[in-house]
Amino acid sequence: MDPVTLLLSAVVILCLAYVYINRKQDKYRHFPPGPKPLPIIGNIHTIDMAKPHITFIQLSETYGPVFSIQMGTTKMVVLCGYDVIKDALINHAEEFSDRPNTPVLAKFLKGHGLALSNGENWKVMRRFTLSTLRDFGMGKKGIENKITEEAECLIQTFKSYGGKPFDNLPIINAAVANIIISLLLSERFEYDDPTILQLMNIINENMRLLGSPMVRLYNIFPSVMDWLPGEHRDVLENNRMFENFIRATFTKHRKELDVNDQRNLIDAFLAKQIEGKPESTLYYHNGNLNALVSDLFTAGMETTTTTLRWGLLLMMKYPEIQKKVQNEIERVIGSAQPQLEHRKQMPYTDAVIHEIQRFGDIAPDSVPHATSQDVTFRGHFIPKGTTVMVILSSVLKDGAYFEKPEEFYPEHFLNTEGHLKKNEAFIPFSMGKRSCAGENMANMELFLFFTSLLQNFTFQAPPGAKLDLTPAMGVTNGPQPYEMCAIPRS
């Protein structure tokens, strides 16, 4: 190449680079402020990759409730505090209604299902899910009866330990899983059934791994880390095994399907497939069924299990609170089976359950959102497709709304007369268009399981055990592994 051509080529390349950089700078000219990123890695070196919400809350004290960070080469926006989160998710609900791509899950979900899908697919799947779950008893007496029956099985299993120490995780896991399984499959598993044990192990392991620094790094640098060994490969293998179970299950249901006698959500979905309407092909395909069942199984099991396990740990830690709950149970319910109608007569127990959810802070940084369009928010320009982190922990632990945010204090939800007091900052299920679809069922389960267990047992730590309230590693905030003693009360 002659010198003139070489020089002209260099000038053209420099001009194009200048235009590209300026256009990119224009795009982010009014972007929220944030710490200065380093090349390639961004702000990763300053983030607690095991519990990033802790760093985000600290950064909000410097940069305000709407700020930006850069993870690798990707710019993100972080929202902290009730006022800002409500403004985004309620007043700008449509603009903040998308989900970003999560590389470690994308290979499995492929943009299908409910939790991480977008656009019309998400709208169709959400409408179908809510209407179908209602049809099969969610929020009605039918599901209440299933929960109370399962609570009795749980009680009998606890009694079998004779007051000796045991790990409650697999037992509570199975009991809670059986509720969502009844809606999805019309089945119930014994707590030692190999199938449910394998499913629970897969989900619990994935929830732990998805919060690990290695998997978080994979989601930032997928093309680089695809070639490396690590925990991201374990997540992919777990997803493959779970997908095989789901496929085998709905293949069985397809063979037995009677459209005039639909028994559960999978039957209802398969019936949609054969209606012959345009949406049957567009939305009611196996990819969506696969992802939807995975979403519902995981959401229906993990967070409620984690909340109940926090509840029993906190009752052991604070026996005086446990005793107050038991006194209210004796006064209102006696030896009868707990029913949802009792809840309005039990403000203290209700306040304790609210406080377990608040203190446990199960989803501290929620599920990430993304902007569905360009939006100007609180004076900042946020381009379409920007990942938005909604830090629920900044709300549930906000001293402006909760008198003792770092303590377990049921009085956060009681007025001076001892009646249940609502608090607008109590948003453990998030809010707006993307709030948890199973919130009502989860609240039913928490009340019925919790009151049934405290009606029948006093929970104590094993002799010499120290009760640690530090959350374990994971994408959700679960308690550290612990054992307990369930002492029968009758």
Your description of this structure?
With 490 residues, the protein is α+β, with helices and mostly antiparallel strands. It contains 18 helices and eight strands. It has a four-stranded mixed β-sheet with strand order 1-2-6-3. Strands 4-5 form a two-stranded antiparallel sheet. Strand 1 and strand 2 (74-80) form a beta hairpin. It is globular, with a radius of gyration of 25 Å. The chain starts with a helix and ends with a strand. Mean pLDDT is 90; it is low at 3-24.
Count of separate DSSP helical elements: 18
Overall pLDDT level: 90
Through-space gap between termini: 94 Å
Placed side by side, the strands forming the largest sheet appear as 1-2-6-3
Query: What is the 3D form?
Result: globular
Spatial extent as radius of gyration:
25 Å
Helix content: 40-55%
> What portion of the residues fall into strands of 2 or more residues?
5-15%
Q: Can you summarize this structure?
A:
This protein is α+β, with helices and mostly antiparallel strands and 490 residues long. Helix content is 52%, strand content 7%. A hairpin with a 2-residue loop joins strand 4 (375-377) and strand 5 (380-382).
